[in-house]
Amino acid sequence: MTEFEKKVYQIVKTIPRGTALTYKQVAIKLGNAGLTRAVGNALNKNRDKLVPCHRVVRSDGTIGGYAFGNKKKREVLKNEGYFD
Q1: Which entry of 20, 53, 56, 77 is annotated as an active-site residue?
Q2: pTM for this structure?
Q3: Over its length of 84 residues, how does the chain's per-residue pLDDT go in tens digits?
Q4: Which of 2, 8, 22, 79 is 20 to 30 A distant from 40 in Cα terms?
Q5: 53 an active-site residue?
């Protein structure tokens, strides 16, 4: 795991249940909005269940990718109260 990935995961671990950040918001918290794609790539490599990468969504309102599929991501977010 790279230092960058560790930083991304630390930020994502702070996202409360029932809420989400966008990939861009995570990149901004890292200090560079241009890292949006790198954030997505780092989350794509995540295999740690303690990192709630499902709580990171796209800026356009869609849920974005998820290792277990978009249907599962939507289901998990709904169970956490993200969707009404």
Answers
A1: 53
A2: 0.90
A3: 899 999 999 999 999 999 999 999 999 999 999 999 999 999 999 989 899 999 999 999 788 888 888 999 999 999 999 986
A4: 79
A5: yes
